[in-house]
Amino acid sequence: MESTVTSKSEQNLLDSPIRGSLSTSTSSFEALDPHDPNLSKLATKMFRKTEEYITHEINTPLEDYKLLEDMNKATVAKYSDMRQIAENLSVSTNELSYKFQQLIPLMKQIDEISDTVDKLEAAAYKLDAYSIALENRVKSVLQRKSTLQ
Q: Which end of the chain has fewer beta carbons closer than 10 Å to its terminal beta carbon, N or C?
């Protein structure tokens, strides 16, 4: 094993980014240092993609909340419409109930008239039957009288 002795100043000179020692740290980057342009492009692209990813990750919950807000607004509008329909139905039902209450006496009169008509019809049938029977009797009496003469 060969041991090389280097002084501290020589070691600092070898580790200096100015001398071309490769460093994986981006914090020691200096604008005038020679660097790989391809690596710079790739790093810029990586940072851009990372920014896009983080932006989308942050915006996703915001979009979810926006969707929920829109859904809530639509639900509120739908329930408002349904409430208006229910109120209209209630008003219409009350009006119909009031009109029905007003018709009850008239319906009772109609029922009474119907009962009276039924009784008159029954009386008319009885009168018709009686008149037919009377007519038959008169015919029979006239027939007897004509046969006796």
A: N
Residue 149: exposure state from Cβ atoms within 10 A (0-12, 13-18, ≥19): exposed
Number of Cβ within 10 Å of residue 124's Cβ equals: 10
CA 36, CA 23: separation in Å to the nearest integer?
A: 12
* CA 108 to each of CA 37, 42, 97, 104, 118: distance values in angstroms, whole numbers, following the listed order: 103, 96, 17, 6, 15
pLDDT tens-digit series, residues 112-128? 999 999 999 999 999 99
* pTM score, whole prediction: 0.46
Which residues make Cβ contacts (< 8 Å) with residue 17, sequence separation at least 6? Answer: 23, 28, 29, 30, 33
